[in-house]
Amino acid sequence: MDDYSSVHFGKVLKKLREARHLSQEQLAHDSNLDRSYISILERDIKKPGLDTIIALGKGLGMRASEIIKELEEQPENEWLLKDCFGIRDNNINSFMDSGTLTHPEI
């Protein structure tokens, strides 16, 4: 796989939102995004960019890297880190510990 077409971001986003007992409306408000966009993301109609993942992290009370970790932990997304981030051992912890992602929001 060489594109994001099969990344199930919406499944992960909905799981994280529901685990925090947030409505789409509340997450949208806390993330400074539109509620309809949250719905679009959760249904995997569109994929978010990095700025959106950072905003969603703020709304969820977590770092963008934690959202990426959740994505990596989904079996159907295991190719993501390998193909898109160049990680060969599929181990997000060693990737994060390496300091590769140094932006304070990530």
UniProtKB/TrEMBL annotation:
SMART domains: HTH_XRE. Keywords: DNA-binding. The keyword DNA-binding applies. It comes from the Bacteria. Residues 13-67 form the HTH cro/C1-type domain. The keyword DNA-binding applies. InterPro entries: Cro/C1-type_HTH, Lambda_DNA-bd_dom_sf, TransReg_Diox_bact_type. Pfam families: HTH_3 (PF01381). PROSITE patterns: HTH_CROC1. PANTHER family: HTH-TYPE TRANSCRIPTIONAL REGULATOR (PTHR46797), METHYLPHOSPHONATE SYNTHASE (PTHR46797:SF1). This is HTH cro/C1-type domain-containing protein. It comes from Neobacillus rhizosphaerae.
